[in-house]
Amino acid sequence: MNRSYVLISPCRNEADFMRKTLDTVIAQSIRPAKWVIVDDGSTDETPKILAEYAKQYDWIEIVTRADRGRRAVGPGVIEAFYAGYETITPSDYNYLCKLDLDLCLPQRYFEILIQRMEENSRIATCSGKAYIKENGHLVNERHGDETSLGMTKFYRISCFQEIGGFVREVMWDGIDCHCCRMKGWIACSWDDVDLRFVHLRPMGSSQQSIFSGRMRHGYGQYFMGTGLLFILASAIFRINEKPYVVGSIAILWGWIISAIQRKPRYDNQEFRRFIRAYQMRALLIGKKRAIESLYRQNKRAS
Fold first, then answer.
1. Span 5-199: which CATH code?
2. Where are the domains of the chain?
3. Does residue 116 carry a pLDDT above 80?
4. Which of 27, 48, 216, 285 has the most CB atoms within 10 Å of its CB?
5. What would the pLDDT profile of 190-206 be if each residue is shown by its tens digit?
């Protein structure tokens, strides 16, 4: 059975975190066949650290891009990802993972993901759950079970190609999971102890601040096609997350200001109709039941 997988890691100025990620990948029970790390114009010690590891491990390959002068989230990250993707032959591998360099992974992380996908051929993409350290304790970042997390998206190569890969737009890590469901595939994540990983940099804080990150999330939801009722419900659900209340207001305001300014939305009407229908059903019967109902429909149709 082919268990080969390739990692592609876009990075920029990750010197403070990357050694922990590098070391936890090297220690995996099933190592990647290849790891392409794309240095997206780093100005710190990142290139030096990457050269050090690439010299020791011949399955680590470094791709260097010019410095754009700033950290780019969303579309910029995916541009860097594809700079790495273009260097591989996808058919050489059974699985692909877009992996950030600010994570600490458990030792059997990829082995368990592969096992889950072998047990269920309908799973297109999956991940574990992200935790952050606060006052010596691990705190769940609270991602939904119906999505694979953007910092460690593990894909069946065939499914990744079938959905057309990642869109080079904001909210790419939500759009891909909905595309999987549209095509009858499953996107998911699990909160098992052996799949919990530590996110060394809190979600949404990598560019300016957590507040601006929450506003960016609100805009991303608007771009993807999320309706007002659903984003309101989502903001209320996150009201007890740091920064308390303010973070939820920022998410909602990011959506509202985008609507007021009539910013462009994802140019795929079939996709936007699909997620609006799913979101409305989730509001009526709950997200978990809405997802289960959708998967049952897809199973009967297949």
1. 3.90.550.10
2. 5-199, 208-302
3. yes
4. 216
5. 999 999 999 998 655 44
